[in-house]
């Protein structure tokens, strides 16, 4: 059973909410000045994970927020991965690494074993398929998975990703097609391969076509809430409410700011429930 | 004076060799079993930096090799950056990060301040120009610099980078053109902007055109030696021996294997001198 299979089962059981632990120290309602920034972030994450584990489909940890705190932050990163994985839910390390094969081997070792071990990692495709291949032995042997950047919904996505190629496809189509082809050799029991794609949850015009083109590809869908993605849009990228996880980071971490008098962890739980109902409600309408 | 200016001056004084500290534990001729892998790597790097500082144009530290050792490796990474920067030579952190603006802000903070501070970082362009912009305030205010992936020489580069767009350009042309345009607002005294490009040192057919198209753009040129780039090829990407730095990692770190009876640090020094003469010799022929 692959980690993509586990993700599929978790979405079926708990819904598609991916809790993004992009924890910036300024998000914490209170801090303990006797502790380092990283230690404070760990305590916040610990409470957040405990509160949301029944309503999250998975966790995603954005490593940049931890790198920004230096060595103290990297310790917090390792500890956060450990806590999140202890829930039994799949944990995605949002690292977006992309480098030549020899270097990619090092990144694969870094993020699929040891202190920074995660279940699934995100990758960047620019340098080509040989920058993805070194992660695949871990998919084959240990059930690990990858989500490769394909079509994101940040304003800059139009600069390169959305550009048209000579054959009429967008760059993101070429990336999506190539990775889907590669994924055929890494198919899980659930019908989705261990090579997933990052597909932004906004811009609906091509959503149905994208979902139909990549039937066996699991999607990591950022953009809900803070980035402007609506549940009705996002439902188009799912198949009967599965085949994708929908990330929210600030929407969940900072939910307490919109729920006066409610503790941050309880507010995060409430927001996960609300978000899940919002998305599943739209899925049921399709 | 920007870090790209410092790099230009260093290449003029010391030559274009970029010593790549992609140090894998298996590269070390001997290890001290009382020390951690990271501590052993630091001692190797310390000797290597001491031996090569008179013949290196700059240092480049590939973070993947350090990440692969977990927290121990990240301590070695911080220490290696510190030792390399203490030479006064510019130090490039080869991190190839690329993410949405808010996350890129975190990466910029991570790698331009604190434990992991470097002078220049490498970036990946796939997500667009808003994934590059957050690094630019550091270029403006503190003279930091970036090298953005453009046209690499790994086999997979043909999968996406070399594909043709509807307008006849390659994807790498669009990336190079866009970043060069962006760089106009970040021009240094030396005539090169703080936004450089990563351009592989192999495949010569378009080398002259690329150098001519990006006159004010400094190149980080990987691919010498181990990856098949020859000095005659690489000279085409330089302008009178400057405007670029040429990376060699394994060629320098493992030079001792081709120089029996010579200590690893002395062998590395010899290889830097040989490589510099090789490249400068070809530059003088042009």
UniProtKB/TrEMBL annotation, chains A, B:
Q: Molecular function (GO) terms listed?
A: orotidine-5'-phosphate decarboxylase activity
**GO biological process per UniProt:** 'de novo' pyrimidine nucleobase biosynthetic process; 'de novo' UMP biosynthetic process
* Keyword set includes Lyase: yes
List, alphabetically, the InterPro entries matched. Answer: Aldolase_TIM, OMPdecase_AS, OMPdecase_type-2, OMPdeCOase_dom, RibuloseP-bd_barrel
Q: Could you tell me the EC number(s) of this protein?
A: 4.1.1.23
Instruction: List each copy of the Orotidine 5'-phosphate decarboxylase domain by range.
Output: 16-267
Provide the coiled-coil residue spans. none
Q: Which Pfam families match?
A: OMPdecase (PF00215)
Catalytic residues of the enzyme = 96 (proton donor)
User: Keywords of this protein's UniProt record, alphabetized?
Assistant: Decarboxylase, Lyase, Pyrimidine biosynthesis
| Catalysis performed (reactions) | orotidine 5'-phosphate + H(+) = UMP + CO2
Q: What pathway does the UniProt record associate with this protein?
A: Pyrimidine metabolism; UMP biosynthesis via de novo pathway; UMP from orotate: step 2/2
UniProt similarity note: Belongs to the OMP decarboxylase family. Type 2 subfamily.
Output the NCBIfam families linked to this UniProt entry: pyrF_sub2
Name of this chain's protein? Orotidine 5'-phosphate decarboxylase
Q: What species was this sequence derived from?
A: Subdoligranulum variabile DSM 15176
Gene label: pyrF
């Amino acid at each position: 059973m692959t980690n993509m299979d586990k993700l599929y089962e978790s979405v079926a059981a708990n819904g598609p909410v991916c809790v993004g632990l992009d924890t910036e120290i300024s998000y914490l309602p209170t801090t303990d000045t006797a502790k380092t920034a990283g230690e404070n972030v760990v305590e916040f994450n610990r409470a957040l994970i405990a509160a949301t584990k029944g309503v999250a489909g998975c966790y995603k940890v954005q490593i940049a927020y931890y790198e920004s705190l230096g060595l103290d932050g990297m310790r917090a990163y390792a500890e956060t991965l450990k806590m999140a994985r202890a829930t039994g839910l799949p944990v995605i390390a949002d690292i977006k690494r992309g480098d030549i094969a020899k270097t990619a081997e090092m990144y694969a070792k870094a993020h699929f074993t040891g202190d920074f071990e995660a279940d699934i990692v995100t990758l960047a495709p620019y340098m080509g398929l040989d920058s993805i291949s070194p992660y695949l032995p871990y998919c084959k042997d240990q059930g690990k998975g990858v989500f490769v950047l394909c079509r994101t919904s940040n304003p800059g996505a139009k600069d390169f990703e959305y550009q048209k190629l000579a054959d009429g496809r967008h760059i993101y189509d070429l990336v999506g097609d190539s990775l889907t082809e590669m994924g055929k050799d890494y198919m899980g029991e659930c019908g989705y391969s261990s090579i997933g794609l990052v597909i932004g949850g906004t811009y609906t015009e091509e959503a149905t076509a994208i979902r139909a083109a990549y039937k066996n590809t699991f999607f990591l869908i950022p953009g809900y809430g803070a980035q402007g993605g609506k549940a009705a849009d996002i439902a188009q990228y799912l198949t009967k409410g599965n085949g994708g996880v929908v990330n929210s980071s600030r929407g969940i971490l900072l939910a307490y700011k919109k729920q006066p008098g409610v503790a941050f962890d309880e507010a995060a739980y409430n927001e996960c429930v609300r978000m899940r109902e919002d998305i599943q409600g739209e899925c049921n309408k399709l």
